[in-house]
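Sample pair:
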Amino acid sequence: MSMFHPLDTDPIWPDRAQIVSDYYQTPLQAINEIYKIASDKDNLKRLALEHKLDPYILRTMLAYTRYPEAREIYLTLDKMNVSIKGLTVLDFGCLAADYGLFFASHGAKVTIYDYRKFTDFARFRFDRNGLKIQILNVPVEYPALFKNKDLVIFGEVLEHFHDPLTVLKTCIDQKVKFIFSSCYPFGDIPYFELSGHRRSAYDQQPACQELLNRDYNIIRLEEERRMWVLRKWDL
């Protein structure tokens, strides 16, 4: 098996489909056909379940990739002369763990956190590429989860929480040096009308912005993506 090359363009087809095929021991043609004929999320979910596939894993692997965002984080840290090797990284709510794979391939010490069914799939991907990983499964107390983490990555996850303010407050209490957020806390009303996004999370956005702005400098990336850099940290 060839090693993972994170700075290369990651094609959605056929490599990601092949990974799903291998993990579920389902023919590649069936994986491709399911995704091809699925006209919407509900149809995709129905077809995935009929074939005993997890619909969230299937959609995450075939509909998009997080490597470009991981590359953004990498380049931002590089401009700050922050070494990735040995950096402690938490991929929070990892699902398929694109972020974790990217940083582990660069020598970071990566922890992934999610429900068991997702971390089992992520472990398969890490093993496939010969990369080490620490796995934590829901639930873990937030102070223990964020302790001694240099970088915490929230890739489209906080908007799914009833109380993201507590999550971010714990990051700050644990003096996490760098936080990446893919959209939250800058989502608009249409964004929060999407399935699984919580109204309570929307209501907490102003408080979350205020909390982060108090202790972090903000680096604007593309669209609503942000890097938050702790103002007082020891290089």
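The first helix runs from residue 12 to 24.
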